[in-house]
Amino acid sequence: MYRMTMPDNDLLFFRGRKDRRRCEVCGQLTAKREEDLSTTPIAKPPKVEVSCSVDGVVVVTNRVRRALDEIFPNSIRLEPLQSNLFAFLPTAIVAFDAVARKTRFEGLCSTCGQYRSVIGAKPIMLTQGSAVEASGIARTDLEFGSDDEKAPLVVLGDEAAKRLIARRFSGCEILPA
């Protein structure tokens, strides 16, 4: 199993946005992965083909979008953004083993049930029976980080990792999980 990492692109899709759905008590995003990202202005496009916003949105170029569609048909969601860019998210979800990894959960909100911070993602540990197919891609069920910056880990099977490495997308780093 492998994980996909990418550099920060300084874009913000959620911070300071009053039009995003949030818990009225703690202010956490309540539907982060369902929000419409196409309305976020992108004044300065990322310098690399694969990058991540400060608040956990993976951004890819059109060239990467075409390749991902080819490599992972029906396994990813690509949302058009401005400047010929796309938000990328695997649709398959794998269960992260927070107990075995000793992941810390801090700041539980009794209203929305979310934690302010989820800490301890690496090394990646999946629950027994949870796996990524050799040619597959998935995201963890947990999102790691704090506040708006929480994001899932993107995990790949061995064959999928080889295929992405061969494409040599700038910014995309594939590392053993």
Summary?
Helices cover 14% and strands 31% of the residues.
Question: Helices, strands, pairings?
Answer:
Layout: E1 2-5, E2 50-52, E3 58-61, H1 62-71, E4 76-80, E5 85-90, E6 93-94, H2 98-101, E7 104-108, E8 115-119, E9 137-146, E10 151-156, H3 158-167, E11 173-176
Parallel strand pairs: 6-9
Antiparallel strand pairs: 1-10, 1-11, 2-3, 3-5, 4-5, 7-8, 8-9, 9-10
Structural summary, described in words:
By secondary structure, this protein is α+β, with helices and mostly antiparallel strands. The chain is built from 3 helices and 11 strands. Strands 1, 6, 7, 8, 9, 10 and 11 form a 7-stranded mixed sheet that branches. The longest helix is centred in the middle third of the chain and has 10 residues, at 62-71. The chain starts with a strand and ends with a strand. The mean pLDDT is 94.
Tell me, what's the shape? globular
**Oligomeric form of this entry?**
single chain
Q: Please compute the radius of gyration using only Cα atoms.
A: 16 Å
Measured distance between first and last alpha carbons: 6 Å
| Beta-strand content | 25-35%
Taking pLDDT < 50 over at least 5 consecutive residues as the criterion, the unreliable ranges are: none
| Number of alpha- plus pi-helical segments | 3
Percent helix, as a range, is 10-25%
Top keywords for this entry?
177 residues, alpha+beta, 3 helices, 4-stranded antiparallel beta sheet, globular
